[in-house]
Design goal:
Blueprint (H helix, E strand, L loop, with lengths): L20 H5 L3 H11 L2 E5 L5 E5 L2 H9 L4 E2 L27 H10 L4 H4 L3 H12 L8 E2 H5 L2 H10 L6 H12 L11 H26 L6 H5 L3 E2 L2 E2 L2 H16 L2 H14 L1 H9 L4 H12 L4 E6 L3 E3 L2 E3 L4 E5 H4 L35 H18 E6 L4 E2 L8 E3 L1 E6 L4
Parallel strand pairs: 2-10
Antiparallel strand pairs: 1-2, 3-7, 4-14, 5-6, 7-10, 8-9, 11-14, 12-13
Helix pairs in contact: 6-17, 9-10, 10-12, 13-15, 15-17
């Protein structure tokens, strides 16, 4: 998906297809979302097979849909691949569960992922990122987007308890879940890709748990911690552990790579912003927040209306699917003036909803922020100007906004 939009254009809202994969692969959805926020902040679409959904695109409406589980439930599925088809794991899978059960499962996991808790991983993460960047400093073409797919696994693998030999396979499987129509990840066709990746990931966690139980002893990894979680006064079942482990693997792997590559692309295209951050490292935390806003790697989330809900000048009918467009909310000019300008000094960049909003706010956000901060500290300290070495290729997905290829050439920074 293009992150720097082209010029404004007319949009026929009556024929608009927000699930048109070409819009995100080779097209430009931002001018579309601009028109929707201005003229149709509540939009209704019927798919060719008869399924239908409503869309909200303004920041305040996205926050309301994601923030109030009493009006908009997660219990029937939270990703657009489930529009009109209830998620069979709903009520058991953490991401497809409402409070209070959601809170009971989330709280003990979140205690392992607070900003204070992940701070102890800083030295380890820095070492990992230095190793990751080393090949880019040789002066040859380096495909940042392709390489970055593995970066979250390199960072979170030890935290989760996943051995290095499994990282590449799991990264491939999680990409298949979130971009099943992309030719880099598709196996046969979209439905087969989803079925295979879901089965393999759930089976991986199931077998991991069996081996962990057989080994016994102490284990402070996140997946092992999941095995001790209780909800509703009872331990999680093995099926729930497997499903939530699957959800954790997805969350760990699928968005950070695209935030990295999209933010680096923004800096390449705006060398004055690169130079500003390099001259003043105190700007790096805000660079991270602007990068999260700018890339909005999780492009949308879905909920279902519990009752008839008035919102955005219209009404969403009871039990209807509603898609909250994160990528649009983060370019809402009512909150982010001049939203299509990438500005690392933007004063309110942190008000983005790239990590979601409300009860399902990304549990791994502190770790993602730490990883991104360290990445850009190391990049800016070690690299001189970076140049594109070819055309970016965008992910074929309306759910995850990202790139599959971003060839760049970087040189080691000359130190005084």
């Amino acid at each position: 998906m293009r992150l720097t939009p082209g010029p404004a254009r007319d949009v026929d809202l009556d024929t608009l297809d927000l699930f048109d994969l070409d819009l995100y692969t080779t097209g430009d959805p931002h001018p579309v979302w601009d028109v929707m926020r201005a003229k149709a902040p509540l939009h209704h679409q019927v798919l060719p097979d008869g399924r239908e959904f409503w869309s909200v695109t303004r920041h305040e409406d996205v926050c309301r849909v994601l923030g109030d589980h009493r009006e908009f439930t997660s219990e029937r599925g939270t990703t657009p691949t489930h529009v009109g088809i209830d998620d069979p794991a709903a009520g058991r899978l953490l991401t497809s569960t409402d409070p209070p059960r959601h809170t009971e499962v989330r709280r003990p996991l979140g205690s392992k992922l607070t900003a204070r808790a992940v701070k102890s991983w800083e030295d380890s993460i820095r070492g990992t990122i230095r190793r990751f960047l080393q090949p880019a400093l040789d002066g040859d073409t380096f495909d940042l987007a392709e390489a970055a797919l593995l970066l979250p696994a390199m960072v979170t693998g030890p935290l989760l308890g996943i051995p290095a030999k499994d990282w590449e396979e799991l990264v491939q499987l999680t990409a298949m879940v979130t971009a099943p129509s992309d030719p880099h990840f598709m196996v046969g066709h979209e439905a087969a890709t989803l079925a295979i990746s879901h089965h393999e990931l759930v089976n991986y966690v199931t077998e991991w748990v069996k081996r962990r139980r057989a080994a016994g002893g102490e284990d402070d990894t996140l997946l092992a911690h999941l095995m001790s979680v209780s909800a509703g006064g009872a331990p999680l079942s093995d099926e729930e552990i497997a499903l939530d482990g699957y959800s954790i693997l997805l969350g760990a792997n699928v968005t950070t790579p695209h935030t990295v590559s999209g933010t680096v692309q923004a800096l390449i295209e705006r060398p004055e912003q690169f130079e500003k951050a390099q001259a003043d490292p105190t700007l790096i935390p805000n660079l991270v927040e602007e990068g999260l806003r700018w890339t909005s790697a999780a492009c949308n989330f879905m909920r279902y209306a519990v009752d008839d809900i008035p919102i955005a000048g219209g009404t969403i009918p009871a039990r209807a699917a509603v898609v909250a467009w994160i990528g649009s909310a983060n370019r809402d000019a009512s909150l982010f003036p001049d939203p299509h300008t990438f500005d690392i000094t933007r004063p309110n960049a942190k008000r983005h909803v790239a990590f979601g909003f409300g009860p399902h706010f990304c549990i791994g956000a502190p770790l993602a922020r730490l990883t991104l901060r360290i990445f850009f500290e190391e990049l800016l300290q070690r690299c001189g100007p970076i140049e594109l070495a070819g055309e970016p290729q965008h992910l074929r997905s309306y759910f995850i906004a990202g790139m599959t290829h971003l060839p760049v050439v970087a040189q080691k920074r000359k130190t005084p």
